[in-house]
Design goal:
By secondary structure, the chain is mostly helical. The protein has helices at about 5-10, 20-30, 35-65, 80-100, 100-120, 130-155, 155-160, 165-180, 190-195, 200-205, 205-230, 235-260, 265-295.
């Protein structure tokens, strides 16, 4: 095993990509009861500095992308240090998880195993458009939300579970799932050459946009039901306010794609991902501070 990761390995671990998954953690933090600062820091560090980068790196090692991937317009060639350090980061994430609870540590293992099945050539869920979508939909969204909420609350998942917890997880899944096919619309040629059958390939470019729009609308409905049941409907109207710029970027991009399919490219995808990720993070931070200061 190399002593230090190469520059290529560090780039492929895409630490900044954790930013786009941060809204799930912040949402869980805003809804958790009796959270201690140390526990909150451990859960955050575990996911965003170790488990997510390990997953990114492991997938990149086996994908060996030559074209643009998330946050890397021109990815460098992978090397063996990427493989070893992705596993090492998984181990560190698991050990940090044990400091929170055994249940949370096991959740990081489950997440890590599913992410490996996503790209490993023996199983390679990426060859199955439905299975690969469900892994991302469930495990990057609802699963992380539920595991984080329980860990932040210092309880087991069965102790915090109710209908609102279920809906909260599904909100996260819908928001992440809505972005999923849009991150693949510019990779059809490379995915086809590699033998992968992604959801975006199955749906087609225009179908990917329609699917994302339907799933996002489902998420909006769930946000309404969630805050209505908690009798904090003002948080729903805040959500509407924050998603207006995202809808503008989405509709502008889709209009361009309808005119010319070459607009389904890396730069437009990155703009869309940045807009949605930033808007959702800011929204859930507002929700967190409203809950913290009871405003």
């Amino acid at each position: 095993m190399p002593i230090l990761p190469s520059k290529s390995a560090l780039l492929h671990m895409r630490f900044f990509f954790s930013f786009f998954l941060l809204p799930v953690y912040v949402f869980a933090l805003s809804q958790a009861k009796g959270t201690q600062t140390l526990r909150a820091l451990l859960v955050f560090t575990c996911w965003h500095f170790f488990i997510y980068p390990a997953s990114n790196g492991y997938n990149s090692y086996f994908d060996k992308d030559e074209g643009s991937i998330a946050l890397l317009e021109k990815p460098p060639s992978v090397d063996k240090s990427l493989y070893w350090f992705s596993l090492f980061f998984d181990l560190i994430g698991f050990l940090l998880g044990l400091l929170v609870s055994l249940e949370f540590a096991l959740a990081t293992v489950i997440y890590g195993l599913l992410s490996k099945m996503y790209s490993h050539p023996t199983i390679r869920l990426k060859k199955n458009p439905i299975a690969s979508f469900l892994v991302v939909f469930i495990f990057q969204g609802a699963f992380v939300y539920w595991a984080s909420l329980a860990a932040l609350s210092g309880s087991g998942i069965t102790e915090v579970w109710d209908s609102n917890v279920f809906i909260g997880g599904m909100i996260c899944s819908c928001l992440i799932g809505a972005s999923y096919p849009l991150t693949q619309v510019y990779q059809h040629e490379e995915d086809t050459r590699r033998g992968d059958r992604t959801l975006s390939l199955l749906l087609g470019i225009n179908g990917s946009f329609v699917f994302s729009g339907i799933l996002f609308l489902t998420g909006v409905i769930l946000v309404f039901l969630y805050w209505q049941s908690k009798e904090i409907i003002s948080n729903f109207w805040l959500f509407v306010l924050f998603i207006l710029p995202v809808l503008y970027v989405f509709l502008s991009w889709f209009t361009k794609v309808l005119r010319n399919s070459t607009n389904a490219n890396f730069r437009n995808m990155s703009r869309m991902t940045l807009a949605s990720g930033t808007a959702m993070l800011l929204y859930f931070l507002v929700v967190y501070f409203r809950a913290l200061f009871k405003i």
